[in-house]
């Protein structure tokens, strides 16, 4: 029986792409590097802030300069992370429906824990039982440790939880964590990429997601 639903953040419940692109390009620009397109940033996302910047800087950039760009992004993004970001249609209502049904919810993201909690508070206040972001000493997704933290804080087993995400990283995370998964198609990866990663259960919009979720919860 499903007692908890765990959500990824970027590309799953929040469209954060434009604010992330703006922050990355600010950090690149002040260091004299060429800016990146929206599609490039989309493909760079999924493995956390460090990997995002490592992928965004020109190939061969020395480590000190990469760290400087990363620091600029770290300073800029929290101050501008809600300018263009918006929740995907129907997600707040779905979270409210799950809460009313007695289903616990969590968000697990490779964003920093501080940024995750800021965005949850701004867009989904009172709707998540647990929120888990990147923490010092804890391996990021697709490693299972962040999911283990969420499951522990939710007080459920992996057999009682379901994961919802939008990327190849999420598919691998679910596999590494032993979780059943629903993959959404409105996020940051194309369906072909997701199929190649091993995803096999898809939804195209929030109506399909709600219907499938509650059918699995009630089964």
Describe this structure in words.
The chain has helices at residues 17-29, 38-44, 49-56, 63-80, 91-100, 113-123, 145-154, 168-177, 191-197, 206-218, and strands at 4-7, 14-15, 86-87, 104-112, 130-134, 161-165, 180-184, 202-203. The longest helix has 18 residues, at 63-80. Helix 1 crosses helix 4 (63-80), helix 3 packs across helix 4 (63-80) and helix 8 (168-177) runs parallel beside helix 9. It starts with a strand and ends with a helix. Helices cover 49% and strands 16% of the residues. It is built from 10 helices and 8 strands. Helix 6 links the parallel strand 4 (104-112) and strand 5 (130-134). The strands form 2 sheets. A 6-stranded parallel sheet has the order 5-4-1-6-7-8, sandwiched between helices. With 219 residues, the protein is α/β, with parallel strands linked by helices. The protein is globular, with a radius of gyration of 17 Å.
Q: Name the shape in a single word.
A: globular
Low-confidence stretches: none
User: What is the helix content?
Assistant: 40-55%
Q: What is the count of β-strands?
A: 8
* H and E order: EEHHHHEHEHEHEHEHEH
Short note summarizing the structure:
This protein has 219 residues and is α/β, with parallel strands linked by helices. It has 10 helices and 8 strands. Helix 1 packs across helix 4.
Question: Which features characterize this protein?
Answer:
about 220 residues; alpha/beta; 6-stranded parallel beta sheet; two-stranded antiparallel sheet; 8 strands
